[in-house]
Amino acid sequence: MSGRVLVGVKRVIDYAVKIRVKPDNTGVVTDGVKHSMNPFCEIAVEEAVKLKEKKLIKEVVAVSCGPQQSQETIRTALAMGADRGIHVDVSGKDYENLGPLQVSKILAALAKQEDAQLILLGKQAIDDDCNQTGQMTAALLDWPQGTFASEVSLEGDKINLVREIDGGLEHIKINTPAVITADLRLNTPRYATLPNIMDSLMNNETELHKPNHRTSLCVGLIPLFETVAPEDMQGGTDRSGAMLRHTVLQSGKPKRIILSCLCI
Amino acid sequence: MMNMNRLIVFSRTFRIGQRLLGCHARHAGKEELRLQQRRSIKTHSRHLAYAKDLFLGQVNKAEVFPYPEIGNDELEEIKQLVAPVEKFFSDDVDSAKIDREATIPPETLQGLKDLGLFGIMIPEEYGGLGLSNTIYARLNEIIALDGSIAVTLAAHQAIGLKGILIAGNEAQKQKYLPKLASGEHIAAFCLTEPGSGSDAASIQTRATLSEDGKHYLINGSKIWISNGGMADIMTVFARTEVEVDGVKKDKISAFIVERAFGGITSGKPEDKLGIRGSNTCELSFDNVPVPVENVIGEIGGGFKIAMNILNSGRFSMGSSCAGMIKKLIELTSEYATTRKQFNKSLSEFGMIQEKFAMMALNAFVMESMAYLTSGMMDRPGIPDCSLEAAMVKVFSSEGGWICVSEALQVLGGLGYTKNYPFERFVRDCRILPIFEGTNEILRMYIALTGMQYAGKILTGKIKEMKKGNIGLAIGMVSKKLRASLGASVDLGLTGKDGVVHPSLEDSAKKLEQNVSLFGSTVESLLYRYGKTIVDEQLVLKRVADVLIHIYAMTAVLSRASRSISIGLRNHDHEVLLANTFCNDAFFKNNYWMVQLQKHSPENNDANIKKIAKQVLENRAYICSHPLERTY
């Protein structure tokens, strides 16, 4: 086993930014808006670096698909402790149509090329909330998957995983190589310290890849019709005297109730 | 006027060229590619930068146009460095708690140390980040969001360890800088004493050489020392006996003092109005033994070192205040656009709009001045920008105070409560016009330094004329004739070889008029007062104010010209801000300069002095009560 871990990082609009829809309703305003690494991807990078520090894996490679600016995201990953970066250059129209299926094909190809033992991803991106890339990548590679991981531990060539699911916590054991997607409580990502950032800027450890026919992006585009901001919240209407009953219950004493019909 | 002792300086802005040369050796390691900036201390005549020529009515275009630019690599670096610092300050810094408990929590302090913020300007070979003045100013924009943290960091690196950095010898640097860079040791700057605040040259702390000649024993006390309670390494200034030409004199020397030497006691932390999280206390030195190797620079050269240290840290106040105002604009506008009164949102009322315009203008001017100054300071040859830095400090501290007050005003009653951060910003900002050199002292410094330079040039010219240099005399007379006949002034900012973009032409013309009038005003003041001008504080105050506004106009025009020329986003807004500010400043300057004319009716100074004299003689307000009767 190569002991190499591939970590996918995505450049998204920063979580603190107020999103505005473009006037022509074709999407959201991204020009001049602050971008940063997807928070779940940060957690994935942190987990990979932790595994490296425990000497359970040998190398952490950060991968990002996107335009030139994705290199900043890769550099942040390098500053957090990743060893190498791979930037898959996707720009313009291709970038607008880039979705989980395309990214998972790229990751699958890279995993085979880099002989990766593990792929760590964030469970979802905060811009599209797809929650698909990890699962699709595992399917394409025919690897086991451990999604929504809140605890990961390596045991020989198997992985013990605790997954956060609707019903509670699920404990599973999967073989390597595998795909793991990180959930919120997996860890607390470290700050990229300034000295580390400066080191990562000096060492240009990022390779540039251009997607080729094997990882064709033209298949299965989902057309976007319209982007619209949600409507402003309106007040509620009291349809069945629920408000009246609520008042009575609150006061705690039985009262003579005059039922009035408030159906509107 | 090159200082022979100066070390060779490599500027970071030349790194790109070096990188291009070294790109084939990209993976050969950073030591070859990263060039360091070494600062040295000048011991004789200064090579002043741009502002001095303004006193002669000349604009030294080359110094300030075009606006200083940093390379793409450096810009990339700044963007990457800023991100985690911003994140840390928004997630992990609880300013309200720091203010309430009057202390910075150890975890926050450790977070700052881990980020590397304790050694921003310390060269990499000593464990710091080795960043330029410009990057330091940029980081300060974020650090200023919490006043206590900003002051703690500034006291540590902008003044506390600066002495070692700029005037220390190699051994001292090797010994002390690494631990200071990591934050393991914290530094403090100990100059002020109970009897010596603004008058720094009058300090009384003594350092006497021990009998074996190996130690100095320091005795005395210092007050208002930031980081005083937790500092391990202090730069202490004390009087030493020096022999100059066989005469024994008392001169100030600078020492690196470790708390571990013993004999140092810190008083209890001062309970302050603002920056409450910063530790400020009294320090007492009782026969503290300091090895002779710990003298910074030469014995007797301490005062110059102190002034150099203070001068080099000042400019960052511009970017700190700008960063704070930008944040305030965001917070306040959120409120102004949602709060409704009289069926309209606050943002539709003129007086509220004026406040926002004022905040935007101030932030714009402060940014422009700060980065112009830091760009000048980062140039190879290190010109002496102490005058410009002082101007940035005065403008920013007063502008910041006004803006913060107006921001609170927009929120009205809510702004006055502790539920919102505005009252804390107001309290934290009050210290700005006081520390790092009070604005009164800095105004004197600005005006007098410039007038000293102008005076020297003028006396030089007069000497030449007396020697019979007719050409010079004719030149001066014709210049005066032209000015009095009302000919338009052209200092080369606009027109064929102009450096200012045509959309800013009007403002540039106003600047040229101001500068030209300023030059002749300075000249007439020198003739009128001669050496006694040192005592005419109200005159010097106006001179300083005019100069500060002229420098601000220059910075703003330079920056806006560049923005248009390269097409930055929202450059038309910048043009609007620049023109508005220049218009405002033009008329203010003219009014001040009119007040400086001989027997000017607009000048109330004589009366003001009379009033002050009578009040101070009686140490009270002396008018009879309006309700009094005499019969």
From TrEMBL, chain A:
GO biological process terms held by the UniProt record: amino acid catabolic process; fatty acid beta-oxidation using acyl-CoA dehydrogenase
Domain Electron transfer flavoprotein alpha/beta-subunit N-terminal: 25-207
TM stretches of this protein: none
An annotated Gene Ontology molecular function: electron transfer activity
Family the entry assigns: Belongs to the ETF beta-subunit/FixA family.
Keyword Electron transport carried by entry: yes
UniProt keyword terms in alphabetical order: Electron transport, Transport
Compartments, record wording: Mitochondrion matrix
Function comment: Heterodimeric electron transfer flavoprotein that accepts electrons from several mitochondrial dehydrogenases, including acyl-CoA dehydrogenases, glutaryl-CoA and sarcosine dehydrogenase. It transfers the electrons to the main mitochondrial respiratory chain via ETF-ubiquinone oxidoreductase. Required for normal mitochondrial fatty acid oxidation and normal amino acid metabolism. ETFB binds an AMP molecule that probably has a purely structural role.
The protein's assembly and partners: Heterodimer composed of ETFA and ETFB. Identified in a complex that contains ETFA, ETFB and ETFRF1. Interacts with ACADM.
Coiled-coil regions listed in the entry: none
Lineage, uppermost ranks: Eukaryota, Metazoa, Chordata, Craniata, Vertebrata
UniProt name for this protein: Electron transfer flavoprotein subunit beta
Organism: Oreochromis niloticus
GO cellular component: electron transfer flavoprotein complex; mitochondrial matrix
Pfam families the record matches: ETF
Automatic annotation (TrEMBL), chain B:
Membrane protein topology class: Peripheral membrane protein
Cell location: Mitochondrion inner membrane
Domain ACAD9/ACADV-like C-terminal as annotated: residue spans: 502-620
Gene Ontology MF: a single term: acyl-CoA dehydrogenase activity
Occurrences of domain Acyl-CoA dehydrogenase/oxidase N-terminal (ranges): 76-184
CDD domains documented for this protein: VLCAD
Gene3D superfamilies the record matches: Acyl-CoA dehydrogenase/oxidase, N-terminal domain, Butyryl-CoA Dehydrogenase, subunit A, domain 2, Butyryl-CoA Dehydrogenase, subunit A, domain 3
Catalytic activity of the protein: (4Z,7Z,10Z,13Z,16Z,19Z)-docosahexaenoyl-CoA + oxidized [electron-transfer flavoprotein] + H(+) = (2E,4Z,7Z,10Z,13Z,16Z,19Z)-docosaheptaenoyl-CoA + reduced [electron-transfer flavoprotein]; octadecanoyl-CoA + oxidized [electron-transfer flavoprotein] + H(+) = (2E)-octadecenoyl-CoA + reduced [electron-transfer flavoprotein]; oxidized [electron-transfer flavoprotein] + (9Z)-octadecenoyl-CoA + H(+) = (2E,9Z)-octadecadienoyl-CoA + reduced [electron-transfer flavoprotein]; tetradecanoyl-CoA + oxidized [electron-transfer flavoprotein] + H(+) = (2E)-tetradecenoyl-CoA + reduced [electron-transfer flavoprotein]
Chief location of this protein within or outside the cell: mitochondrion
Keyword list, A-Z: Acetylation, FAD, Flavoprotein, Membrane, Mitochondrion, Mitochondrion inner membrane, Oxidoreductase, Phosphoprotein, Transit peptide
GO cellular component: mitochondrial inner membrane
Cofactor(s), names only, from the UniProt record: FAD
Domain Acyl-CoA oxidase/dehydrogenase middle: residue ranges: 188-288
Quaternary structure, from the entry: Homodimer. Interacts with NDUFAF1 and ECSIT. Part of the mitochondrial complex I assembly/MCIA complex that comprises at least the core subunits TMEM126B, NDUFAF1, ECSIT and ACAD9 and complement subunits such as COA1 and TMEM186. Interacts with TMEM70 and TMEM242.
Family: Belongs to the acyl-CoA dehydrogenase family.
Protein name (database record): Complex I assembly factor ACAD9, mitochondrial
Gene label: ACAD9
